[in-house]
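Long-time lurker, first post.

We've been arguing in lab meeting about whether adenosine-5'-diphosphate would sit comfortably in this protein at all. Half the group thinks yes, half thinks no, and nobody has a model to point at. So I'm putting the question to the forum: if I give you the sequence and the SMILES, can you give me back a predicted structure of the complex? Inputs are below. Any interpretation is welcome too.
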Amino acid sequence: MKKFINNIDNMLIESLSGFATAHADIVRLHVEPTFLTRTQKASNKVAIISGGGAGHEPMHAGYIGKGMLDAACPGQVFTSPTPDQMLAAAVAVHADKGVLFIVKNYAGDVMNFEMAAEMLPFEHATVLTSDDCAVVNSTYTTGRRGVAGTVIVEKCVGSLAETGADLASCKALGDKVNLRTSSIGVALTSCTVPAAGRATFDIADTELEMGVGIHGEPGRKRETMRSADAIVKDCVDAILADFAHKGLTPQQDALVLVNGFGATPLMELYLIYHSAATLLKAQGVNISRGLVGNYTTALDMAGASITVCLLDDEIKQHWDSPVHSAGLRWGC
Amino acid sequence: MKKFINNIDNMLIESLSGFATAHADIVRLHVEPTFLTRTQKASNKVAIISGGGAGHEPMHAGYIGKGMLDAACPGQVFTSPTPDQMLAAAVAVHADKGVLFIVKNYAGDVMNFEMAAEMLPFEHATVLTSDDCAVVNSTYTTGRRGVAGTVIVEKCVGSLAETGADLASCKALGDKVNLRTSSIGVALTSCTVPAAGRATFDIADTELEMGVGIHGEPGRKRETMRSADAIVKDCVDAILADFAHKGLTPQQDALVLVNGFGATPLMELYLIYHSAATLLKAQGVNISRGLVGNYTTALDMAGASITVCLLDDEIKQHWDSPVHSAGLRWGC
Amino acid sequence: MKTSFILSASLAIHAAIVAHEADIESLDRAIGDGDHYINMKRGTEVIASLYNELLPLPPDQVLNKIGMKLLSTIGGASGPLFASFFMSMGKVAKENGADTPLEMAAAFAAGVQSIMQRGKAQAGEKTMLDVLIPVSTTFTTSAAAGKSTIEIAHEIKQVAATGLESTRNLIATKGRAAGLGERAIGHLDAGAKSCQVMITTVCDLMIKEA
Amino acid sequence: MKTSFILSASLAIHAAIVAHEADIESLDRAIGDGDHYINMKRGTEVIASLYNELLPLPPDQVLNKIGMKLLSTIGGASGPLFASFFMSMGKVAKENGADTPLEMAAAFAAGVQSIMQRGKAQAGEKTMLDVLIPVSTTFTTSAAAGKSTIEIAHEIKQVAATGLESTRNLIATKGRAAGLGERAIGHLDAGAKSCQVMITTVCDLMIKEA
Ligand SMILES: Nc1ncnc2c1ncn2[C@@H]1O[C@H](COP(=O)(O)OP(=O)(O)O)[C@@H](O)[C@H]1O
Ligand SMILES: Nc1ncnc2c1ncn2[C@@H]1O[C@H](COP(=O)(O)OP(=O)(O)O)[C@@H](O)[C@H]1O
Ligand SMILES: [Mg+2]
Ligand SMILES: [Mg+2]
Ligand SMILES: [Mg+2]
Ligand SMILES: [Mg+2]
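Top reply:
Settle the argument with this. Predicted structure of the protein with adenosine-5'-diphosphate, as tokens:
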């Protein structure tokens, strides 16, 4: 393992300190317990709080700021944060209209946010994101994983909250965006969890992991490496099948997000976007919004995910509205 | 080699097509010869054109847009573009106030832009960027390399050009920013040029390449891998020595850019920023601006560069001014 | 169950987890995300460090404080689960005491119950519960049968090992491995492994001290 | 020098470059950026493809068109340099012809001159010029001495090989390798290698056809 670190125990806090210094105009870092908030506390709005294990940068701290999150709670690498962080964050940013947790659907994140919610002295609700269509849903499983689509949920809910909308409306929009969003990821290499010091999985030069999770969890299937178009076609087919399964017709306006896992160059991500856009257009999907880059990473994994979000006027409005965070910025 | 590609010959154009589709509101792609321009041609300003080999994404096409470049000419991976591209780009964006080429100082880029300039039917000037302090300057060599500091030059010159400033002033600001900017890079792994199909250099798990170039050129010295703080200290010392060599005192306002080479996670880049900011502050440098991310990459190389730009009021004004490109956006 | 026993158990557990780093770590890497060992190490280390602070407290308060501390230390899926376990155990210990084998079995059962509630999980879902549930059952029935702590400890070690082994051929329906379907088969569950390690450690301590 | 000779030379050169992929590629990887072989392949391939288009044209126009095409095809440092070489050669060929060995040597010398101007470089800077300059000198003197094309071709092959070898122990002061200082020592220069390969190929063709 070769990384820019001093020692594994301080890695997270040193990185967060650098983040807070570099973006002092947007975010403030709090410690014991660890959480980040906007530099300027917002007033009279639903407080939007997210969090999750570290290693997905810029998610979530990178999405704190006007038009998006009020606070974020980073856990250890790939490990859910703890309820005390979520409580402290909620107390710090609560602004008289309740607290909305946006939580990626993993047992750990769900249970920790759940316990925080149970102790929360404010009105609260939770949006669980579960856009990963690689994991086939079933009543027997804990359900689908929340991946890069979470960025779209956080952007849209954050925008609605700025308008002073109430908790129920923010929760409803979050659930709607999540329902209309489907993602799937492909890994070409494993990531390396610093504390583990070795690759999470072994993969040959001739293989890829289809449906991989953003923690390097094995995916649907170990497959043979092939051309970008062939890989992307399988991803797009999986996403379209998922929409069909959800009873949603993809022949409408859509946002396409090609997300890098951390070690894949922009040149390849744009190539994937080209391939995906071509295939989706051929299927009658009208791509009116696009986003390409590293937005939900898995440490140093080489690979990418494709996310399609079916837009309606409300989602369009809240995606396009101004946002000023370290990871997403436009309109201001 | 494991990459998202279909075939090596189409890689660049497929990627550029994806880029142009994803950012259709900002850029337009032209072919035969290949170059990119703003979607909206600007009028009555100096036309700012840059270019260079591909593989440094988002540089340069990612910096096309209001407040920055008017056009960019991408070459093959790590290979300077050719004069016909530069001529066509100049003809497309020239807006009655002359053309300014911003060129990273490499023999190939210099000679190709030079030949284009000789054929140019308009008033023109060229800013050569040479911020890399890893290559010690000497009258015997072709001089220092242009690396990540080029982003700062393009941002500031682009901003000044929007004000209607004349060619001489734009060239003067570009030269000033370049003079006041110093960078050095470190590689933990090699990059892999797709057409070559194998790593440009071999490097052990116990080694790093200090002073590496953005094409995977060997740097100052092959050194042993060590802690982030130890690596960053050597980089900061090299930068401060360079300012001393240039007769510039670093005890003033500065912009610090921590740039990832493509495969290094944000978590590590922010950790490097934390380490660099701490060391620089201790030296009396007043860091009033910061930028952290992948802005001048070397394909899939793991590593990062640190850039310090000494600010004055003019540079501050043009760094802070609104910019709307795919790679840098604020204030609009 | 005395405070001194709980605390020496916590030290022994930390040592045992560290001693099993390789297996625990590789199991979560194989069908999880590779952090279970680090989470367990972080958690047990912090509890061990509370030794002097907890020594003066009664057992129920010690169990409760251990649960609260684990809740804010471990994170992940195992954090809230182990936290709930100890907090519920403490609650029952406070109400009914935890001195006789029967009382201890009842407190343990309450802990396991709280894990099932928090995790919305049953036996057979390839989780730590495949160790905890059978252990709890044995504990209760043998205690009811009036067996000695030593006998019970020996039985439980056996049951924990069998429970762990039972996770090998299960498809996971809870936790990260739930995404894997068939691919989870053949691997033991990491949380089940750490539970078996911890339970075995406590049993050995009981046998030694009895 | 007939058009037909230039064009069969261009085909032979393309084949020769491809045949030397491994050495050319590895040299630029060692002390450059690894793209020189790809650049040369791209350039020589395009020229080879112009065969029929150029066949009807006089030699000077063919040389000029080759130069222009290389300029818009190769890129990098070698592109403008080889382009200048052929364009200047074409210019001189047009003015003074390029039929006798002396005329050919003069055209070749003009080409090398233009590379030195464009690259602001001399001999001894660890570039292609360390092959081109001695070759040009030999070409001129031997032609002046009235030697036959065959004799000259044999001499030139030798000089090109020596020139290439001379780059091994030089510190580079031009091109990418200029950043390396001492570290460039021990490696041949990639551009010098491709020039040696191309010159050798043309010489063999001269010998064969004479
Ligand atoms: N719903 C659940 N019920 C019971 N145990 C669970 C549940 N989800 C996960 N676990 C246990 O937690 C273990 C994983 O813990 P850990 O790796 O620390 O957290 P994470 O899965 O968040 O990385 C699994 O091996 C499993 O035994
Ligand atoms: N200033 C120069 N004068 C003469 N030859 C040069 C000069 N700079 C570079 N070269 C030659 O160009 C070769 C490199 O060409 P190439 O790899 O195609 O371009 P780049 O260096 O831009 O990647 C070097 O090996 C050297 O022989
Ligand atoms: Mg985890
Ligand atoms: Mg090159
Ligand atoms: Mg885990
Ligand atoms: Mg080269």
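For your lab meeting: Chain A touches chain C through 37 residues (CB under 8 Å). The mean pLDDT of chain A is 96. Whichever side wins, do check it experimentally.
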